[in-house]
Amino acid sequence: MAVDYTTRDGVAVITLNNPPVNGLGHSTRTGIVEGLGRANSDPAVSAIVITGAGKAFSGGADITEFNTPKATQEPTLHTVIKEVEKSAKPVVAAIHSVAMGGGLELALGAHYRIAAPGAQIALPEVKLGILPGAGGTQRLPRAIGLEAALNMIVTGAPVLSEKLANSGPNAGLFDAMAQGDLLDEAVAFARKAADKQSPHPLVRNRKIEHPNAEGFLQFSRNTVAAMSKHYPAPLKCVDAIAAGVKQGFEKGLVFERECFLELVQTPESRALRHAFFGERAASKIPDVPSSTPTREIQKVAVIGAGTMGGGITMNFLNAGVPVTLLETKQEALDRGLATIRKNYEAQVKKGKLTAEKLEARMALLRTTLSWDDLKEADLIIEAVFEELGVKEQVFKRLDEVAKPGAILASNTSTLDVDKIAAFTKRPQDVVGLHFFSPANVMKLLEVVRGKDTAKDVLATVMQIAKQIRKTAVVSGVCDGFIGNRMIEQYVRQALYMLEEGALPAQVDRAIEKFGFAMGPFRMSDLAGNDIGWAIRKRRYQEKPDIKYSKVADRLCELGRFGQKTGAGWYDYKAGERNALPSKLVDDMIVAYSKEVGVERRKISDEEIVERLVYALVNEGAKILEEGIASKASDIDMVYLTGYGFPLWRGGPMLYADTVGLYNVARAIRRYAQQPNGDAWQIASSVADLAGNGGTFN
Ligand code: 3H9
Fold first, then answer.
1. What distance in Å separates the CA atoms of residue 697 and residue 694, rounded to the nearest whole number?
2. Tens of pLDDT along 417-464?
3. In angstroms, what is the span from residue 582 Cα to ligand 1's centroid?
4. Which atom of ligand 1 lies nearest, measured to the CA of 61?
């Protein structure tokens, strides 16, 4: 049963009991309506408390029901809230921990609200590409005032309950804050309320007071429009609030409902919900159940104080975990330490960190030149030079010094984790932890599972990833793991297109218009073109049968390594980051086409986007087929959190589903017929799904 019904001192207590977060799915909604009916017909009951069991009052509507018949099956949340408002006996919402979305909307329907301090209160629907659809845009402004409500609704950001107690120009959200036991106090409050004359107050009957509502709404519209280019929901939030202000509560409610039904069907909302569930699904590994024991991680060590090692270190310091940082030379250690401090100081300057916290974090850091100091560490992460020989030395040494049961992690981005594990006598303790640069900022962490990596090691690193606020995605061992293996095919297409007729600025513009944060050439200039060059040189030896365009090598032969050398695919003015198209490079590309005998043609922006994105999709499909990723949403999470894929498109695999795999397969087959078509070996799953109308997700 999703709802419990009990009575206490003549008060009916309706407890939402639908773990994990008391989502307001159909059975919960039914239970509330039944409880209200029962309480109202019981003469021994004088008032009603609605509360939540476990870790939330309610996390809102059950998102998994969206776009299914259950979402609109009566009683809908609207009906439930109407029943609450209609109740002849006063209804008190007793809120603790979390009241979000529909949960808060339900509480706004109650006659009174009492909250425990520290509860997170939000209407976060906008983050899912929708708007509060059960009266939130109408009732919240009447409860806490137009400006505060609009801010909460448009950002979706949580506010602590104590900040909403009798605040704002209106009567406030909470009638009381609990000092002790929430339920005891809610029951006492309800008993007192029952003594009062009905009708009991309803938020819907309050007025929205604002000296210049029209002007404020227009200002908000302009600001929100400028900030939410690719997302329709934020503007609709403003529109729905405005409808209530101008046309009154009932008409506002109808308009809100229309907007909700429209938004829930949009690809943007689908993508955002996919990302919400994808992030949570990524932490679940099919054969590592949540009951798997974990190892205790109290002390961490990082080997290498370069950019990567420093960034990795900061993650742990931020989470309050002590770190020992090892280097081979004192200068390197000093440099690394200074960079970490400088990064924190920059945060202090921006007001994002206090000076005390900076010192507290630095106090957790110990530096050393001695391997003996790694003896105590529970988790050791190496971030040394990306060469197997160097890794071999490190892991052999680690095998000697690390305590039994310590987790030994490599931050390799391309090397074989199984080979690295084999340098030790404890391959079960070895795992890849591929952080992305800058490691203290980027959300993505690829967890590379070796063939011998123990399950408890995996469970532990997934847990620690959560602690350091990373989105961890498990990848099997293969060249480049999930992210870089796919990006290689994307870059390969980008270079081919230069050879065939495009120029860097056109390619970048087209894919940035699609929504990527940065096109491949601007990105390469930022990262350093020499990095790709080094990888390609290795590839030419390892995979001589695979064809690559050499146009990027020509660029590097000119010493144009990107922003750091002031010239790359683009020109850069000293001290500036603006990418300026370079005549020299464009001429070099045209000359290269001639040299390789390719007749240049006009390439459309549509072709550019298709070839880049479908290259990701096709390789992603192969990665799934090989079991390197366990689900399509894992691949999407890698691209959303580590590679700047537009969030509102949901990642490459969801995008392919949205376009239709039939269309994707047709395009791939078409490109396979063009010059350089050998790069397009259609993945069998793409071909199969295209044939049977299936999808990846
Ligand atoms: C809405 O209310 C629309 C209405 O306006 C109108 C309706 C007509 N539904 O995050 P966690 C699952 S829209 C279904 O790890 P935490 C989640 O998938 C809704 N499932 O826990 C996960 O499942 P699993 C507006 C949900 O403690 C498990 O709960 N509300 C929902 O770190 C634990 O989640 C929101 O947008 C849901 N609403 O954080 C709130 N919520 O264990 C979205 C969670 O199988 N939720 N799950 O992986 C959150 O922000 C966080 O989950 C919350 C708890 C803060 C509640």
1. 9
2. 999 999 999 999 999 999 998 999 999 999 999 999 999 999 999 999
3. 49
4. 2
Kindly report the average pLDDT of the chain as a whole number: 96
Which residue is catalytic, options 125, 327, 610, 619? 125
In the chain, CATH 3.90.226.10 covers: 3-263
Residue recorded with tokens 């198209």:
581
CA 17 to ligand 1 center in whole angstroms = 14
Rounded to whole angstroms, the Cα distance separating 383 from 409 reads 9
pLDDT band of residue 552 (cuts 50, 70, 90) is very high
Report d(CA 613, CA 67) in Å as an integer. Answer: 27
Single out the residue of 139, 152, 11, 161 nearest to residue 85, CA to CA. 139
CATH number for the domain whose boundaries are 300-475: 3.40.50.720
pLDDT at 48 over 70: yes
pTM for the whole structure:
0.93
DSSP category for residue 660: -
The CATH class of 3-263 is alpha beta
- Residue 63 Cβ contacting ligand 1 at under 6 Å: yes
What's the gap in Å between 695 CA and the centre of ligand 1? 25
Task: Tally DSSP H helices, then E strands, for the chain.
Answer: 28, 19
For the chain, the first-to-last Cα distance in angstroms comes to 30
Alpha-carbon distance of 25 to 661, in angstroms, equals 32
Q: How far lies 649's CA from each of 125, 471, 553, in Å?
A: 17, 18, 33
Class (C level, CATH) for 483-692: mainly alpha
* Residue 158, preceding peptide bond in cis (omega within 30° of 0): no
Question: Token pair of 645, please?
Answer: 């894929």
Q: In percent, how much of the chain has pLDDT > 70? A: 99
